[in-house]
Structures are given as C-alpha cells and as structure tokens.
Amino acid sequence: MNTAELLTQFEHEGYLVIEDFFDAELMAGLGQLIRSYFGDNPDFFHNDEFLDKAQTDVIPWFPQNEGVKAFDAIDADPRLQKLTTAILGDGWASQYCMVMFSKQGTTGQAWHQDCPPDDPDVFNLNRLVYTSDITDEIGGQTVVVPRSHKAGLLPVGDPVGEFENQIVLRPKQGTLVFLHGHTWHRVLPIKGAYRFSTNYRAAPAGAPDDITDVCVYRNMRYQFSKSKIVEDRADR
Ligand SMILES: O=C(O)CCC(=O)C(=O)O
Ligand SMILES: [Fe+2]
Questions:
Q1: DSSP secondary structure string, 106-164?
Q2: Exposed/middle/buried for residue 121 (C-beta within 10 Å: 0-12, 13-18, 19+)
Q3: 109 pocket-lining for ligand 1 (C-beta < 6 Å)
C-alpha cells in the first residue's frame, strides 16, 4: 500500500477505490449479519416527503449503536486508520458506522453531497465497505463525478440525470471506497433482491459532529435531524 500515492489520487479525484482491501471471510460474516437484521422486506424508514422528493430509498442501520461488535474490526484496521490519517490529518474522529439497505425495484440514491460544500475545508469522509459484489445485474452501482469535490455546489437539475463525466463504480466484495463528502455522487436503481453498503464515516479534527445532518440534493437541502427540507432549490 503506497499511502502517498493513494493520498495524491484521493486529493485529485475526490474518491479512491481499493479492491481486495478486506478479506472475504470478514466480509461474508458482516454480510450475513446485515441480511439477517433486515430480513426479507424491511419497512421504509424515511417519510413520504423525503422518499418522493429525494428519490433516495435507503433504510439505515447503526449496528455499533446496538452493541454489535463484529463491525468494530473494520474501524480497528491499522491500514484503514493510516489512510484515514493521511487524508484527514491527525485528530480525526470516527463518527458512526451506518449500513444503508435498499430494496429491489427502488431508485437507489439521487445525486447528492453528504454535507454542504460552503466551506471547502470542512467535509466528512465516507469510508465505504462492500461485503458482496455490486454488479450490473444487481444494480446499485455507485456513481461519482471525478474532481467534483472542488467544483462547489451540486448544480440544480434532474435529481437522477446523468453528468457527462460521471464514472460508474462496481465495487466487489472486500472493496474499500473513500469518498469525499463534497464529491457529487449517487447510487443507481436496484434490480436484484436488495443492495447494501456499510459506511464508516469520519471527519477531520474540529468538524462539527452533525456535519452530515444537512445533505445537498439537486432539488433541495434536507436536514435529517428535523426531517425537513431546509432549502427548496427546484425553482431557482
Ligand atoms: O452506498 C454507496 O455506494 C454510497 C452511499 C452514500 O452515498 C454515502 O454513504 O454517503
Ligand atoms: Fe452519500
């Protein structure tokens, strides 16, 4: 692992994909825990206004908050910690581990920035872990716009339209994806039985704990803690 090279790539592109980072056995175990938690047909979590307007169908689970220890092995990985320190600097903090589950036939996630890019230096870091392969047959591919972490605010427009320079990622079992919180990204519709990823979010020293409370979509800013649209961008 060449940390300096990976850091340069992340800073330039706003994301980083490292295949075969986590071993298959660990991934299979976590995948099994996630599937048994959600079962066959979990209820939607967000309210109808969010589901309609955000075009984002994810059901979150915070396993560590429920004392499920198996997920700690990822946080504790010294290679992950080293890369995180390279990107965020000393004193970064791990925020939470969130599994995001999407059901068959749902829209995935519309374009968004996890936190507003109002201050370019204040951002969250997504450390995404995939316990099984994401394929074109299953859908749910992660799409990013390279270098958009330096392009400011996600432009107003079609929440699920295409950007000319977008790149489709198909993470495999054990792939680690680093994603800058200002990078424009989305998840494509789910064709298979279900799709999920697990995100170990982190933030640099001094970033507010609620840095990801307001998410920027192409048609609104949404505040999760209040389940409220805080800015309507559609009619700009
Ligand atoms: O599940 C993914 O691939 C991306 C999820 C995402 O947008 C996020 O964790 O902020
Ligand atoms: Fe996101």
A1: ---EEEEESS--SSTT---EEEEE-SS---TTTB--EEE-TTGGGS-SPPSS-TT---T
A2: exposed
A3: yes
Task: Please tell me if the CB atom of residue 131 comes closer than 6 angstroms to any atom of ligand 1.
Answer: no
Atom 1 of ligand 1 has which residue's CA nearest to it? 197
Token pair listed for 173: 């079992």
pLDDT digits (tens, 9 = 90+) for 133-154: 999 999 999 999 999 999 999 9
Q: How far apart are CA 174 and CA 30, in angstroms?
A: 11
pTM equals 0.94
Which residues have CB less than 5 Å away from ligand 2 (the ion)?
114
The 10s digit of each residue's pLDDT in 80-93 is 999 999 999 999 99
Q: Is the C-beta atom of 57 inside 6 A of ligand 1?
A: no
The CATH topology of domain 3-232 is Jelly Rolls (2.60.120)
Alpha carbon distance 111, 120 (integer Å):
19
Q: How do the domains of the chain map onto residue ranges?
A: 3-232
Q: 185 C-alpha vs ligand 2 centroid, how far in Å? A: 6
CA 36 to chain centre: 21
Q: Which ligand is nearest to the CA of 60?
A: 1
Task: Tell me how far apart the alpha carbons of residues 111 and 166 are, in angstroms, rounded to a whole number.
Answer: 11
